Amino acid sequence: MDRSTGTIERPPERAAGLAVEVEPHHCFACGSLNEHGLHLDLHVDRDRCWTEIALPDRFQGWDGIAHGGIVCTVLDEVMAWSLASTDNWGVTARLAVAFRKPVPIGALIRAEGWLTDSRRRVMGTAAQIVDPATGTVLATADATYVAAGPERKKELQARYRFRLTERRSLTDDSPGGRSGT
């Protein structure tokens, strides 16, 4: 990402993709068991992940605007899950976010993340949140993740039973989703 202009080096392609499904869990971003969470409905294709959501009032910062920590969480989640389709499970080591425009509460947004670099167990990612109606970039991010070692990866795969299923149409359901159901 060119930080001076906010330009994303590799714009995400719009692909059909697959839906991410995992066993019910309490993750604030993608878990179905966290009653206060985002309940993101995640989709992947190759080394990309995306979600669409209209953030409810409970995630508000200033009046009508999403809290910056929530924006960071959404960006972090799509970048982290972009690793899953490449059979990597990792934790965030570094995250940098640029807030370009306010992210509105109650309006549909699209978050997209993708893998940019992979060096042994260290992976680079980038992401953006856009207004899908206009294409306006609202926020961008880049991050570094450290992949789990072989034993931890086996534990995570057994616990979460990560699987990819045919993607549902995002227009058939309300934004927000059902990842983990």
Describe this structure in words.
- Helix content is 14%, strand content 33%.
- The protein has 181 residues and is of the alpha+beta class.
- An eight-stranded antiparallel β-sheet has the order 4-7-6-5-3-2-1-8, covered by helices on one side.
- Strand 5 and strand 6 form a beta hairpin.
- The longest helix is centred in the middle third of the chain and has 15 residues, at 68-82.
Largest sheet: 8 strands, antiparallel
- What is the strand arrangement across the widest sheet? 4-7-6-5-3-2-1-8
Number of domains: 1
Estimate percent helicity: 10-25%
The number of helical runs is 2
Terminal CA distance reads 34 Å
CATH-defined fold name: Thiol Ester Dehydrase, Chain A
CATH homologous superfamily designation: Hotdog Thioesterase
**Which architecture name does CATH use?**
Roll
Query: Judging from the principal axes of the Cα atoms, what is the shape?
Result: globular
What is the arithmetic mean of pLDDT? 82
Which terms would index this structure?
alpha+beta, globular, disordered N terminus, 181 residues, single chain, 14% helix, 2 helices, eight-stranded antiparallel sheet, Thiol Ester Dehydrase, Chain A
What is the compact description of this entry?
The chain has 181 residues and is an alpha+beta fold. It has helices at residues 68-82, 150-160; strands at residues 18-21, 43-45, 48-54, 90-99, 108-119, 122-130, 137-147, 163-166. It has one domain (18-166): Thiol Ester Dehydrase, Chain A, CATH 3.10.129.10.
